[in-house]
Structure formats: C-alpha cells, structure tokens
C-alpha cells in the first residue's frame, strides 16, 4: 500500500492543560491530511463540488490511540487507499510522531461516501476522481 505523507506541528490550541493533544484533534489533523492527499492526487474536492455537485462525507471512522503527541511535536500523517467502491472510499491514516523517530501515535480508518450535495443521497464517484484516488494506492502521489 503506497501513501501520501504530510507534516504538521502540534500547537498550543491542539492540546489540553497538560500539553497533550486532545483526542478529538486527531480527526481534524486527518481531515487536513486527506484534503491535501486528494489535492496532490489531482482530485480537488472543490472541483468535485463545483463541476459535479458531489461531496465526500465521513460515513464511519475508527481511531486507535497508541502514543500521545505533545505540544510542539512534529507529526507526519500517511494517507493510503485501502478500498474503493463506486460510491465509497476506505482510507487508512497513520499519524506518526516525527519528533520521536516516527513512533506511531494514532491509526485512523475512515470511510468516505460520495453524495450529491443537493439531495444528500449516494452518488457514483466520477471516473477521473477514481483514477486520481487510485494514485494513493499506486504510490504516484
């Protein structure tokens, strides 16, 4: 499984009073990493909405916490395509603590559904987006 990688730093706003990343912030980090992975794969979600009236929404997410990130740590988030159906994407996102030798902090399995923005009903992912998203599997990003 090939991946897209991006780095972020932990800021004060991301942490609790003890300087440890608040558990819900990992979902925000993952969202940013997914958006950048899609953009780098030439699958802009803005273009998907503007040209086709479609949007990806999180249908399901599973988070496994392994080691905390702390204030000022640098993280690297890997995003990889696990599976794709005509209307859904399954991705795995691994958050690693780059400041501590790439120790795995969190693993997030997320399923995205493609919906019509107007009706909020499932819709097929356009072929160009299928091809672009497959880059996350083939390692072209």
Automatic annotation (TrEMBL):
Keyword Hydrolase: yes
Keyword Mitochondrion set for record: no
Keywords: Hydrolase
Highest taxon above the source species: Bacteria
Family the UniProt entry places it in: Belongs to the 4-hydroxybenzoyl-CoA thioesterase family.
Name of the protein in question: 4-hydroxybenzoyl-CoA thioesterase
Organism: Gluconobacter frateurii NRIC 0228
């Amino acid at each position: 499984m090939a991946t897209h990688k991006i780095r972020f730093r932990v800021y004060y706003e991301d942490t609790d009073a003890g300087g440890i990343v608040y558990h819900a912030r990992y979902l925000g980090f993952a969202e940013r990493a997914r958006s950048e992975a899609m953009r780098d794969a030439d699958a802009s979600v803005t273009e998907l909405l503007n040209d086709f009236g479609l949007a990806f929404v999180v249908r399901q997410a599973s988070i496994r916490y392994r080691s905390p990130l702390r204030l000022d740590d640098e993280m690297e988030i890997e995003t990889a395509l696990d599976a794709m159906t005509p209307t859904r994407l399954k991705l795995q996102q691994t958050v690693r603590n780059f400041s501590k030798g790439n120790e795995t902090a969190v693993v997030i399995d997320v399923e995205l559904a493609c919906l019509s923005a107007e009706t909020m009903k499932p819709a097929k992912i356009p072929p160009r987006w299928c091809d672009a998203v497959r880059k996350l599997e083939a390692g072209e990003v």
